[in-house]
Amino acid sequence: MVKKISFRRVVTPDNKCFDIPTDVKLVFPKESLPPDLIRCLVYIPWERDYLHFSPKRFRRFFEFVLPYLKTRTTDVHTAVCLSYWSNYTKKLEKERGVKMNKKIVAFGLILHDSGWSVLNKKEIADSLTVKGLKIEGEAFGPKRKHADEGVKIARKILNEYKFKPALTKEEKEVICKAVFWHDKTEKARGKKLLIEIKAVVDLDHLWSFTKLNFWQDTVRKNVSPQDYLKNLEHDLDSYFISEIGKELAYTLLKERKKEVGALLNLK
Ligand SMILES: [Fe+2]
Ligand SMILES: [Fe+2]
C-alpha cells in the first residue's frame, strides 16, 4: 500500500510560503533578528528519542557532546547520520576489502559539527546562502571556521572524556583530522587520507538527502523543492567519496522525488 504523504503550509517570518510534510517539525527561533535571518535559522527541535538513532555503545559519548550540538539542527543531524553508521561502514569495508576502525568513525561523526557552537547567528545564516551542496560565496568563511573551531573542541573533549577502553593518541589524531576534513570533499578525495576520515565525510553528507533536512533546507535556503531536487542530483556525485555513499544518497533521493511528486500532484 502506498503511504499517503500530507503537507502543511509554513509561512516564514519574512512572509514566504513553503509546503512541507506534516511530520517534519520546524521551529523559528524567538529572537529579535531580521526576519530573513530568522528564516535561515529555522531548526528541527531536539527530542530525546533521537538519542536512539545512535548505536547503543556510542550513546553516552553522544550525550556528553550534545551541549556543543545545539545550533543549526546539528544535534538532530548528528543523530540521523549515526543511524547510517552501521550499514555504511559494513558496506564500505566490503567495497574496499579492508577492516576499519569503526568506532573512531562514530566518534568523529559525533564531534564533526561541534564547531558551529562558537559561531554567531550571522555566520550560521551565511553558511546557508547556497542553493545546492557546493560551498561558495558567503558560506565559505563560516564553513571553514566551523571545521577549524571543531578541531579545537574535539581535541578538548577527547582529552576530558573517559573512554573505556581508552583511545590511543593516534586514534584521537585521526578523529581530529576527520573533523577538519569533513566539509572539504574535493580535496579529501584526492588526498591520501585514512578510510575512517573519508567515511566521516560521506556519513555527514547523507544528511542533505534525508527527509528531515531536505524539507528544512527548502525553507532555510529559500529554494523550491523541485529546484532543490535538481540541485542535489546535479551535485551528488561530487559530494561523496565512496560508491557506497553515492548509492545510499541516490536511494534517499528517490524517496525525496516521491515526496516532491506527491506535493506537485496536490497543487
Ligand atoms: Fe559541518
Ligand atoms: Fe555535518
Task: Summarize the SSE layout with pairings.
Elements (H helix, E strand, L loop, with lengths): L6 E5 L5 E5 L13 H6 L18 H7 L8 H9 L2 H12 L5 H10 L9 H6 L13 H21 L8 H13 L3 H6 L4 H12 L4 H10 L4 H15 L3 H24 L1
Antiparallel strand pairs: 1-2
Helix pairs in contact: 3-10, 4-13, 5-8, 5-10, 7-8, 8-10, 10-13, 12-13
Please give a structural write-up.
The protein has one domain: Hypothetical protein af1432, CATH 1.10.3210. 57% of the residues lie in helices and 4% in strands. The chain has helices at residues 35-40, 59-65, 74-82, 85-96, 102-111, 121-126, 140-160, 169-181, 185-190, 195-206, 211-220, 225-239, 243-266; strands at 7-11, 17-21. It has a two-stranded antiparallel sheet with strand order 1-2. It is globular, with a radius of gyration of 18 Å. The structure holds fe (ii) ion (2 copies). One fe (ii) ion is lined by residues 77, 112-113, 204.
Number of domains: 1
What is the gyration radius calculated from CA atoms? 18 Å
- Number of H/I helices: 13
CATH topology: Hypothetical protein af1432
- Helix and strand element order: EEHHHHHHHHHHHHH
Task: Provide tags for this entry.
267 residues; mainly alpha; Hypothetical protein af1432; 13 helices; binds fe (ii) ion
